[in-house]
Design brief:
The chain is α+β, with helices and mostly antiparallel strands. It has 28 helices and eleven strands. The structure holds zinc ion (ZN). Zinc ion (ZN) binds next to helix 22 and helix 24.
Length: about 700
């Protein structure tokens, strides 16, 4: 499914195969940042003071840099120098600062909730006991592998390959990513219909390309991965020689699954991900797997058709089921089980997992403190219970109203932008306006909170808590098959510092977590707020019209509403962006993938433009005083630049260009301002300077 978040998080915010955010994903999640909203009152009401560095600050500039040569350095240079990457992080930016502040608020909530008391309400008991169980490392170490032993035994006890279906179903219910992914999703051609969906999956490394690329870095990462798998097997009691053979066999199996998987750039094309077929035809793709046994063990409602996202993958899977020995499948399932559950397992496993997925893949030097991880796990497992308490503590009604007013200003600006576009015909414009008017706005948090009352949370069973929460979520997703679509549901939890556009819902979503400085600051002038949260709103709106979003209509259906000429012109304009961003480099031999990042780059370019239009509308007829020596337009661009200030380790930068659809902060800033004559005017840049290149791009 398409992803349209504003900043990275490495995983789709919504209809997705249910997967817990695991350590490896957290590392990726950390990479990025935000998006949206604006909200004032948060500030004054939150108990955690806002560090100065979180706010827009002209002290963070590097005035020795020339804004027309490297605007990112000019806007962020002071901040970059003062904020090296902490040893437990892979990247450190403004989004992370704010997320860290939200985490502190959640920490206060959870420490309080964890105090045993007869007076705790049901929500407080769940989040408090989940957190307390997670924090008790001593007890986790003392239990050893006992909590996961029944599941290990289930794998060990398989008699033949016919047993795979039941075991894989059980592991899927626990959130373990093995073999393939199974969930529900909206039908691409009829967004009101929720259908079953089966997708590629089951790889341990971050993406298929990690298995297939020939460069020396990729080869090295593979060798280290195999060594890591071997060490985990040894920790489970295998002899080194056997563990060595088993790790190699697992690598061979995953490599073959990777070969059958669709690459990330192709996965941006919704047409390539839509293959709705009968259940019978689906099962014929992989007849060696006992599908009926799987459906029943996994708890799926009855269904007649399914979206086989990438049918070739299931053919490749079938071949693997036939040719891979049962013993090798057992190794594979065992490693994935441990990897998925590792956060609630003894330190030896956790450290080895971090060694590869943290240190090697992202460059982080040490694990984050336990409390930070347990806060994040509570957010991932019981997000709308914890989010409820977060909202009570931080988010005022005023925040919602102010944000909504800003969203409406941005929608007006996009409407005017579309109207004036020189390259689009009246017919396509009319359709675009219908789509824009149909976009629904969701701000802050859901109207109705998810009910976790059926999830049993015990103070002395951290691994069981995770599993029960995962099963609840997995079942909740499956139960949607064949039921009416719920449009009120959120794909992000309220404390999240991010935002998203959902093309199948045609809505934009701004969690409470992002409606704070530096995105929205009540103490700042309009120029700053429009450059920051205004741009985030503009970014999400533009996603409705990027190269993916533009393929969906006002109702969220995959349907072409473009005239052929306009479509051709649109493609040549987006090709300009592909070309521009492909030239940006993050490390030797690692350039941005202009196709992978096209949607995000389109949204950044369009988003900043309409945010500036909305600001100019607000300032029209007013005097424009300088503040801190800068005009409103200059402050607008500086505020934009500053939300993307970030330092990043080389390992993380390499991981990011391979898997992250967002460009790194430096190019989110310089790549966009280069395309804006308004920027060049604001800073009096001359033709031919680096921020004024001869061939600029413009889509929206
Ligand atoms: Zn985005």
């Amino acid at each position: 499914m398409p992803q349209y978040i504003i900043a990275v998080t490495g995983y789709a915010p919504k209809p997705r195969p249910v997967r817990r955010i695991k350590e490896k994903e957290l590392a990726v999640v950390k990479l990025s940042a935000v998006c949206i909203l604006a909200c004032l009152p948060l500030l004054s009401q939150s108990s955690t003071p806002i560090p100065k560095s979180v706010r827009f600050d002209i002290g963070a500039l590097d005035k020795s840099a020339d804004p027309c040569v490297d605007f990112y350095q000019y806007a962020c240079g002071g901040w970059l120098k003062a904020n090296p990457v902490p040893s437990d992080q892979a990247r450190w930016g403004r989004f992370d600062e704010l997320q860290e502040r939200n985490r502190q608020t959640l920490h206060e909530i959870l420490e309080e909730a964890a105090k045993p008391s007869a007076n705790r309400d049901a929500v407080t008991q769940k989040i408090g006991d989940y957190y307390a169980a997670c924090m008790d490392e001593k007890a986790i170490d003392a239990r050893g592998l006992a909590p996961v032993e029944p599941d290990l035994k289930r794998i060990r006890d398989m008699k033949d390959k016919a047993d795979l279906a039941a075991v894989v179903a059980h592991l899927h219910r626990l959130g373990v990513d093995v073999m393939f992914a199974f969930a529900s999703g909206q039908d691409y051609k009829d967004s009101n219909e929720v259908i079953a969906q089966a997708d590629q999956g089951g790889l341990g490394m971050p993406d298929r390309d990690y298995y297939l690329k020939d460069d020396s870095k990729s080869v090295e990462l593979r060798q280290k991965y195999v060594a890591h798998v071997q060490r985990i097997l040894e920790l489970l009691g295998e002899k080194p020689e056997q563990a060595n053979l088993d790790a190699a066999a697992m690598m061979r199996l995953e490599t073959d699954l990777a070969k059958g998987s669709l690459d990330l750039v192709s996965r941006r094309d919704p047409e390539k991900q839509y293959h709705r077929i009968t259940v019978k035809d689906f099962e014929a793709l992989a007849p060696s797997f006992s599908w009926s046994q799987y459906y029943s063990a996994v708890g799926a409602p009855k269904f007649d058709s399914i979206n086989a996202v990438w049918p070739d993958f299931f053919k490749a899977l079938d071949e693997q089921i036939r040719k891979t020995s049962l013993a090798d499948w057992k190794t594979y399932l065992t490693w994935h089980l441990i990897h998925s559950e590792v956060r609630m397992l003894p330190a030896a496993f956790l450290n080895e997992n971090f060694n590869y997925f943290g240190k090697t893949l992202t460059g982080a030097q040490e694990m984050r403190p336990r409390w930070k991880r347990c806060v994040d796990y509570t957010d991932a497992e019981l997000g709308e219970a914890l989010g409820q308490k977060f909202v009570e503590k931080t988010f005022g009604k005023l925040g919602k109203a102010n944000t909504l007013a800003m969203v409406q200003a941005l929608e007006r600006a996009l409407g005017q932008d579309i109207e004036k576009l020189p390259w689009m015909s009246a017919m396509t414009k009319q359709q675009a306006e219908i789509k824009l008017k149909a976009i629904a706005n969701k701000i802050g948090y859901p109207d109705k909170w998810r009910d976790y009352s059926s999830v049993v949370i015990k103070r002395d069973d951290p691994l069981g808590n995770d599993n029960r929460a995962d099963e609840f979520e997995f079942q909740r997703q499956l139960n949607k098959i064949g039921k009416p679509l719920d449009r009120t549901e959120w794909g992000m939890t309220p404390p999240t510092v991010n935002a998203y556009y959902d093309p199948q819902m045609n809505n934009i979503n701004f969690p409470a977590g992002i409606l704070q400085p530096p995105f929205y600051d009540n103490d700042m002038d309009d120029a700053v707020n429009f450059g920051a949260i205004g741009m985030v709103i503009g970014h999400e709106l533009t996603h409705g019209f990027d190269d993916q979003g533009a393929q969906f209509d006002a109702k969220g259906n995959l349907k072409d509403w473009w005239t052929p000429e306009d479509s051709k012109e649109f493609k040549s304009r987006t090709a300009c962006l592909v070309n521009e961003y492909s030239k940006f480099s993050v490390a030797p031999g690692a350039n941005i993938n202009g196709e992978l990042t096209l949607g995000e780059n389109t949204a950044d370019n369009g988003g900043l433009r309409i945010a500036l239009m909305a600001l100019e509308e607000k300032l029209a007829g007013k005097t424009k005083p300088e503040i801190g020596g800068f005009t409103p337009e200059q402050r607008f661009f500086l505020a934009y630049g500053q939300i993307w200030c970030e330092n990043e380790r080389e390992e993380a930068a390499r991981l990011s260009v391979q898997t992250n659809p967002h460009s790194p902060g430096r190019y989110r800033v310089n790549g966009v301002v280069q395309n804006m004559p308004e920027f060049q005017k604001a800073f009096s840049c001359k033709a031919g300077e680096p921020m004024t290149p001869p061939n600029s791009c413009r889509v929206w």
